[in-house]
Amino acid sequence: MNINASLFIQWIPFAVLVFVTMRFIWPPITKALDERAGKIREGLAAADKAKAELATANKAADEQRAIARNETTKLLADAEKRAAAIVDEAKKRAEEEGAKIVAAAKADAEQQATRAREALREQVAVLAVKGAEQILQREVNASVHAELLGRLKTEL
Fold this sequence. Notes:
Structural class: mainly alpha
Largest sheet: none
Strand content: under 5%
Helix content: over 70%
Number of strands: 0
Distance between the termini: 169 Å
Shape: rod-shaped
């Protein structure tokens, strides 16, 4: 057999195979590959869009955290100021209450001292009358000598 004839005969099934492949097999494969490429493109576009949305969401979350942090700091500062004001107010009230208690105690002490002085004056007057009675060896009438006893009380 001649090599040229053999090549020509081998070209016929090859050409038929290429024709059948191009006509029936290649279009569905190409269509499937194009569909797959389209899905991949859509997936990549969705991934890029999701990345952009994630970056935007992260930025918004960072801003919200910063705002919340600032508000928390402000609230803490306000709470500390309020606590200091409450403490100062409590100190003032305690000092005022202490001053009232001290004033009341002083007034009470003065009243007791005054009562004690009055009681001592009465006792001294009684003792003076008894002493004068013993000196004079007679009884001194307190109602008769009330003016004298009153002066004696004021002198004491």
